[in-house]
Write the structure tokens for this entry.
Amino acid sequence: MAEISDSVKLMDTGKRNASERDRQTENSQLVGPAGLDIGTSNIVLAKMRSGAVQTVKQLNAFFAVPRSKFTGKVFAKNEIMYFARNGQFYIIGNSSDMFAATFNSSTRRPIEGGLLSPKEDEGVNVIAAIMKTMLPPPKKPGEVIAFSVPGEPVDTRISVLYHETVMKRTLEGMGYFPISVNEGLAVITAELSNDNYTGIGISMGGGMCNVCLAYMAVPILSYSIQKGGDYIDSMVGRTLGESQTKIKLIKEKELSLTREPRNRVETALQIFYDDLLLHLTQSLEQVLASSDKVPRFAKPVPLVISGGGALANGLKERFERALKNVSLPVQISSVRIAEDPLNSTAKGALYMALSEES
Ligand SMILES: Nc1ncnc2c1ncn2[C@@H]1O[C@H](COP(=O)(O)OP(=O)(O)OP(=O)(O)O)[C@@H](O)[C@H]1O
Ligand SMILES: [Mg+2]
């Protein structure tokens, strides 16, 4: 990992505005515990600054191009984030998207379905390089960093152990004292402070949906399904013969789940969103029903949904509709959307790191 740390160019893309630059500079001076959400689509870092939570985000993606000294000079001039390895330049994070679009191609992902991708040999190095652009070495060695890990997937036979251990070692190599935090529990920590950290937290991410049931911040059960926003994009793309990238863009910018679809892309997006919600609510029914750990709550508990998937207009109503078709051993008082869905996991992880420190 050392050779990469030396060669990572810690730069912003030329398109970043002044306030983003200021934030990056401030961030490089920060000390204290941190929360890190290492997701399929994004890596988000949360830290405290002047009593408020501050977050920074990078795409968890890369784009490889042939290495040349001349290209390196051009990249440096244009503030492109990259590292060099094996005759290639790996353009990383937010910089990679612009390249993929210009080359009429797609970015590659170090994480697939929430876990380290078996397809990408350089995946760990890419993640380490992206983290180094956001996370300077700790001022105090052994600074606590809480990082998110998915629950065990219930719909595949993959274990999270390898992913969790490799991420932990990577952060240790950067000088931190890493502790892993279940993603669903992090959502509960960030969103259910007024409910005594009791209820169900769900993160609808790019590669998976993570679920946790907790009582007073004690996780009772947690799990994941390996379906998320990427599943919707890929199924709609395949069904209609369109690129996944184009579908993702339409989903993020134009989709509303509250109105009648206006065209075949919106029709397919609604169909596969509903399919994901069906899978998610049915998994909740099955996991809760088959567990002997579910307590008898004195009163109904809230269910909070976060992650990028929760940003779709009308998601709450759609989720409530799907929930009516299943029978849960826990009564739900209300379905809520997280205050800041893309940052909940990192914020929750930060709160955990802060309490470890104290
Ligand atoms: N406005 C939006 N409407 C619908 N989906 C959105 C919107 N904005 C982002 N998304 C989707 O959210 C997903 C990314 O969310 P998030 O950053 O929470 O995932 P992640 O944490 O990186 O992934 P995971 O938790 O699965 O490993 C992508 O599928 C993206 O397309
Ligand atoms: Mg996530």
About this structure: The pocket of adenosine-5'-triphosphate (ligand 1) is lined by residues 37, 39-42, 114, 203, 205-208, 228-230, 248, 251-252, 307-309, 311-312, 342 (CB under 6 Å). Confidence is low (pLDDT under 50) at residues 1-7, 10-26. The chain has twelve helices and 15 strands.
